[in-house]
């Protein structure tokens, strides 16, 4: 496969994985927690590197998942000790992120892991970073990691679709009929950590937030059905990745930044022109009502 | 350590930088406390991230690294982001947290796109714009530092002048309206103050961690008191300590970013408050409970000895 095709494929897979996971975050009002996790994952990756002294994907996945879950636990602890929720998120993620940045500059400055890479990702180099496993041909590492995480995400959604849906819309009801709400919550947060770390190499820790939230938010403005929202969100994620790649080539700028920007532009389009919940449609409907009442 | 003392005592620039980060810490601690009580902390996070595209656009337009132009650019995109968040929340079914997250990441994405564009140009390559991401107080030059210090001092004074109005508006908006206070205008003033402190802070702390200087000292101060006046003072002091300590630590090593150290200092103060603050701290509470427990036990024993049974 050509170099360009690999980048588009990897970007699209990150788009789908983030898009699907993001839908649940939006419905559960957990977007800020995802923002926090995407920052703290950096610490997990640095710690994994410092302990294992290798850039092995498996250690990074484990490190990121652990720190991601720790973030959620710390936020929960602070919140239950009486700090406002938004403030507890702010305190926890900035602290863990700051430690991550300090550790990188102190100990990992001379390896391929650096701060710019962590922020913006290096999707342009991803296709060359290949590895061979078993009978498979040589494949980019990022591709393998993203396929594995996408598979895990899809399996979790397939197995727990009903539970995820009901805990998203009516947690009290879910608890009443005996669904382990807390378990589902941590399961979802684990999913977010995995998604973030798998997309980390390609789009970086901060911009992954755009890929998590924007496609889901756009999809949310187009439908009232959760299954449709999940599919639409995946489609938006892929569209943003493909358009973003070509826009980046056209203007010669950062690919991941451009993917995030395109995500924002797509959202703006949907926000204004969505046939049911769009801004212009609502204005138009309001005018029609006013005009109708005058007659 | 003696080198550090030497540098602090003899180097005028270092003294200015320390003064500036101290004033910055006070201003952000003060404004952060009010933002915390108004539940606007995370809007500060979004504004800080959204400053990046403004900085890059200003640099592209002027072609040089003039701090004033960069800060004006940052203020415009910061305010624009705050406005976009409000617009999305009030005109669609999207909730506040999603709107903040969305605007934050998309603006930051645009910022990164513009940053890569800027660094391709020969002038932009050594402009050090990427210092804005994590903050580099050491790179501040004399005139910039003076401007930062003066702005921070002005922000503190303005906040002190409208403190009473802000207090009423924060705790009882209905009452404020009843008193005839211009609520919309005051909200705008407060938001502008918040954006201003973020903008002058990003060169020292960086766009990603600036939010911490607003949130962490305020949350820590909340443990020590229930009065807004005292909370603002304590939060200002914590902010000042974090600013100064962070700057000093980062000058110890070559190429260390300032922002992370300021944040770590602030968090250390927060943790100390969380455990040991009188009244609310976890450890103090446990000790109090222990003492109380003993007292009750002793009284019960005495009652038993006197033959009084409950």
Word description of this protein:
The complex is a heterodimer of chains A (295) and B (310). The longest helix of chain A is centred in the middle third of the chain and has 29 residues, at 141-169. Chain A is built from 12 helices and 2 strands, in the order αααααββααααααα. Chain A starts with a helix and ends with a helix. Helix content of chain A is 79%, strand content 1%. Chain A has a single domain (3-211), classed as ABC transporter involved in vitamin B12 uptake, BtuC (Orthogonal Bundle). The radius of gyration of chain A is 20 Å and the shape is globular. Chain A has helices spanning 3-27, 31-52, 57-80, 85-107, 115-120, 141-169, 171-176, 181-203, 208-220, 226-251, 255-273, 279-294, and strands spanning 130-131, 139-140. Chain A is mostly helical and 295 residues long. Chain B is mainly α. Chain B is 82% helix and 0% strand. Chain B has 15 helices and no strands. The longest helix of chain B is centred in the first third of the chain and has 26 residues, at 12-37. The N and C termini of chain B lie far apart (65 Å). At the A-B interface, helix 2, helix 4, helix 5, helix 9 and helix 11 of A face helix 3, helix 5, helix 12 and helix 14 of B.
Write a compact overview of the structure shown:
With 295 residues, chain A is an all-alpha fold. In chain A, 79% of the residues lie in helices and 1% in strands.
SSE topology sketch:
The complex is a heterodimer of chains A (295) and B (310).
Chain A: H1 3-27, H2 31-52, H3 57-80, H4 85-107, H5 115-120, E1 130-131, E2 139-140, H6 141-169, H7 171-176, H8 181-203, H9 208-220, H10 226-251, H11 255-273, H12 279-294
Antiparallel strand pairs in A: 1-2
Helix pairs in contact in A: 1-6, 1-8, 1-9, 1-10, 2-3, 2-4, 2-8, 2-9, 3-4, 3-8, 6-8, 9-10, 9-11, 10-11
Chain B: H1 2-10, H2 12-37, H3 41-62, H4 67-91, H5 96-120, H6 122-125, H7 131-134, H8 142-161, H9 163-171, H10 173-178, H11 183-205, H12 210-222, H13 228-252, H14 258-276, H15 282-306
Helix pairs in contact in B: 2-8, 2-11, 2-12, 2-13, 3-4, 3-5, 3-11, 3-12, 4-5, 4-11, 8-11, 11-12, 12-13, 12-14, 13-14
């Amino acid at each position: 496969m050509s170099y360009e095709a690999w980048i588009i494929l990897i970007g699209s897979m990150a788009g789908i994985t983030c898009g699907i996971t993001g839908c649940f975050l939006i419905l559960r009002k957990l977007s800020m927690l995802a923002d926090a996790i995407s920052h703290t994952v950096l610490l997990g990756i640095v710690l994994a590197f410092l302990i294992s002294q290798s850039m092995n994907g498996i250690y990074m996945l484990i490190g990121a998942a652990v720190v991601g879950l720790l973030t959620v636990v710390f936020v929960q602890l602070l919140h239950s000790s009486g700090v406002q929720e938004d403030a507890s998120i702010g305190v926890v993620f900035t602290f863990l992120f700051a430690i991550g940045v300090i550790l990188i500059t102190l100990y990992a400055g001379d390896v391929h892991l650096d701060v710019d890479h962590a922020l913006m990702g290096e999707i342009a180099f991803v296709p060359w970073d290949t590895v061979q496993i078993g009978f498979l041909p040589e494949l980019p590492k990022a591709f393998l990691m993203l396929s594995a995480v996408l598979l895990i995400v899809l399996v979790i959604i397939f197995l727990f679709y009903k539970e995820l849906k009901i805990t998203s819309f009516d947690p009290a009801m879910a608890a009443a009929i005996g669904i382990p709400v807390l378990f589902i919550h941590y399961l979802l947060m684990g999913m977010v950590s995995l998604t973030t770390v798998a997309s980390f190499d390609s789009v970086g820790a901060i911009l992954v937030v755009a890929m998590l939230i924007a496609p889901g938010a756009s999809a949310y403005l187009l439908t009232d059905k959760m299954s449709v929202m999940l599919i639409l969100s995946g489609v938006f994620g892929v569209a943003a990745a493909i358009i973003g790649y070509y826009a980046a080539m056209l203007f010669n700028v950062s690919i991941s930044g451009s993917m995030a920007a395109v995500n924002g532009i797509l959202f703006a389009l949907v926000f204004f022109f969505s046939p049911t919940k769009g801004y212009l449609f609502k204005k138009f409907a309001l005018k029609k009502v006013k005009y109708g009442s005058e007659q | 350590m003696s080198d550090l003392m030497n540098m602090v005592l003899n180097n005028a620039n270092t003294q200015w930088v320390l003064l500036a980060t101290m004033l910055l810490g006070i201003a952000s601690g003060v404004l952060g406390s009010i933002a915390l009580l108004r539940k606007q902390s995370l809007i500060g996070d979004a504004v800080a991230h959204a400053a990046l595209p403004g900085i890059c656009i200003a640099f592209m337009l002027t072609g040089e690294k003039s701090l004033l132009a960069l800060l004006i650019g940052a203020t415009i995109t910061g305010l624009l982001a705050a406005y976009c968040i409000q617009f999305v929340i009030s005109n669609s079914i999207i909730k506040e947290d999603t709107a903040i997250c969305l605007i934050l990441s998309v603006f930051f994405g645009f910022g990164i796109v513009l940053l890569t564009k800027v660094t391709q140009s020969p002038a932009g390559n050594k402009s050090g714009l990427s210092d804005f991401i994590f903050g580099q107080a050491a790179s501040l030059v004399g005139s910039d530092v003076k401007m930062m210090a003066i702005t921070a001092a002005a922000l503190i004074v303005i906040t002190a002048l409208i403190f009473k109005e802000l207090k009423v508006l924060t705790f009882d908006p209905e009452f404020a309206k009843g008193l005839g206070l211009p609520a919309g205008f005051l909200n705008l003033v407060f938001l502008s103050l918040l954006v201003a402190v973020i903008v002058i802070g990003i060169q020292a702390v960086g766009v990603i961690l600036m939010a911490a200087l607003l949130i962490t000292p305020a949350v820590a101060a909340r443990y020590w008191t229930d009065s807004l006046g005292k909370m603002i003072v304590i939060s200002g002091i914590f902010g000042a300590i974090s600013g100064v300590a962070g700057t000093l630590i980062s000058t110890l090593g070559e190429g260390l970013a300032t922002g992370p150290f300021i944040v770590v200092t602030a968090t250390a103060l927060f943790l100390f408050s969380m455990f040991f603050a009188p009244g609310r701290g976890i450890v103090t509470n446990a000790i109090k409970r222990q003492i109380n427990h003993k007292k009750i036990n002793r009284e019960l024993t005495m009652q038993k000895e006197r033959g009084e049974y409950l």
